[in-house]
Every structure is written in structure tokens, then in C-alpha cells.
Amino acid sequence: MSVIRIRAGNGGTETRARRIDVRLKDHEYAVHVGSGARRLLPAVLDELGVGRVAMVSSAREPELPDPGVPFTVVPALDGERHKTLASVETYCRAFVEAGLTRSDAVIACGGGTTTDTVGLAAALYHRGIKVVHLPTTLLAQVDASVGGKTAVNLPEGKNLVGAYWQPSAVLCDTDYLHTLPRRELLSGYGEIARCAFIGAGDLRGLDLTEQIVASITLKASVVARDERDQGPRHILNYGHTLGHAIERATDYAWRHGEAVAVGTVFAGLLAGRLGRIDAHRVSEHREMVESFGLPTWLPSGVPVTTLVELMRRDKKKGPDTDPTLTFVLDGPAGVELVPRVHEHMVSSVLADMPAGPAPASD
Question: Domain named 3-dehydroquinate synthase C-terminal: which ranges (predicted)?
Fold first, then answer.
């Protein structure tokens, strides 16, 4: 990891940004984190040899950086309800209208749903076009924009249609976070909290930029070892199996990070019930999540049977006739994939958890 200097225009103020390199077998790219990081966009595009870009962004986003090449702004279809194949088609048709070729690029400026959906559109358009992510939410900066997983939802479940398509660069400008609503920040902290149990350690004593850098550094190291979920990358799903079920069960009234936070507490409880960790370690899960101001309870009005059924649709699930589920759980050897956890055990742990409303909006 290195530090680079950014100068904004003639006579502009100089800014420092942290650089994390993601090194894969057939691809390498840099993630830049810091105030003003988006001003690196022209240099990044010049290095990539890009002649034209489509910048997908919501009108609510802060002012877009000048990419330094001809560009078209495409309105982002933001939020989980627009994370669909229909949105992917809309973006691809906009790319056609913008005249993009395989030598051009797409810029995804927005939250996690934007980077996911635009990333998938980039993977499919002309069988693959460069994409640069400018994540504008904490959740997108610490997780969604890095690692190359792109996906959209189906009515039956979350992220069921997708592709692996690595970005060509990621610019995490922390200035974007200054105007985020509190609940949107909390959603990002859900991913930071679960990092404590998958190798990042306790990040609570760090400032926000350092928390982002630590989270990305961990993810980059895991993805470098396992780009396509064949082994170690499973640890990044910690808390996500129940988290995705909560999102779907509440029709996405619960934010992703909120749901993952609850999933993290559940992962600790389940690991304890299975005898994989002791009571102190179980308590650490709840304490970590609570310390960030995140929920530790299940959504009220959602039956346990509904959550179990949604978890059965998880991508790691076996045949329908198999009454077991697979989870990423803590244990004596660290976090690992644990198959064949019987549904009765899962239901019992869920039934013992309290229920309550989603965190209040600002």
C-alpha cells in the first residue's frame, strides 16, 4: 500500500490518498482512498487509453469529476428495487446511444446497488467493457465496489443473476461521505463490524478513512487468493446468508449493512450453539455490532420459517431434499465454510433472537 498526491487543477490544493493494489492472476487494479480521490479520474482513464465514457450517476450525487474525455451522463436507477435485469438492459441501451465501443469505459458513480448493476451491465455490454467505480456511500467503498462481484436480484432472491467482472480502478473519495444520512453511514458500518471476525481485527479505534483502508486491504488479500469463490473468499460472506434473507423478507426496508449486522450476531450465536466458539466469543459478536449503533435483532413480523426458506435459496445451498444449510462460521481454526447445519438448529437459534423494527430513518 502506498500514498499518492493529488493536485486539483492549476493552483488547486494538494490531497493525499491511500492506494491499495488488487492483484489477480490475469488482472490488476488500484483502489484509491482519500479526500478528493475522484480527481484522479482523468489520469486513470488516460492510463487505460479510454477515448469515451458513459458516467452513470444519480442526480442526487455530488458534482461529477470531469473525466477528461468525451462523456455522456446516464441517470442511475438507484436502490434495491432497481437492481434488476431490466435496469441492466436500460444501461446497455444507453451505452449504445452514447456510442461506446469495447475500447471505451463506463463510470459507476453511486452506492452499492449502482456499482453492482452497472458492473453487470459493463460485463455484458460487448461481452465486456472497462468499468471504473466511484463509490459514494460507505457501504460501497468498504465492500461493494471492490472484488469484481456484480449481480442483480430476482423476485425469488438477492444477487441470483450476476458475473465476475473486475473494475479497472476504484476511486473512494471520502468527501462523498460527509453528506450521507446517518442511516446510510450505519449501513456501511455493518460491513466494517463483521470485518473484525474475518481477519481485519477490531477497527473501532481507527478513523473512518483508516477503517475503509483496512476493510479494503482485507478484501483485496482474500480476492487475490480466490477470485471466484472456490475457497477462501467464502469468508467474505460472513453474516450475509441471514442478511440477504432479512433484506428480501422486508422487501429491502432493512438496509444491507443493517441486515448483515444482524447476520453477524446470528453467526456468533449459531457457532456457539454448535460448540465452535465459547460464550465470550459469542458475546463479542453482539458487543461489536452494538458498539457501531447497529441492530442486533430480527425484523418484527417476519416468521422464522420465512427466513429459513429464503436462506434455502442461498447460492451455497444444496439440493431441496437436503434439510441442511451452509454458513460461514467462526471456530477454533478461524472462520470457515460449515456445511450441513440442520434447519432445526438454525430455526432454534433464530427463535431465541429478539425481534424489533428497522432502524429509524433520519
Answer: 207-317
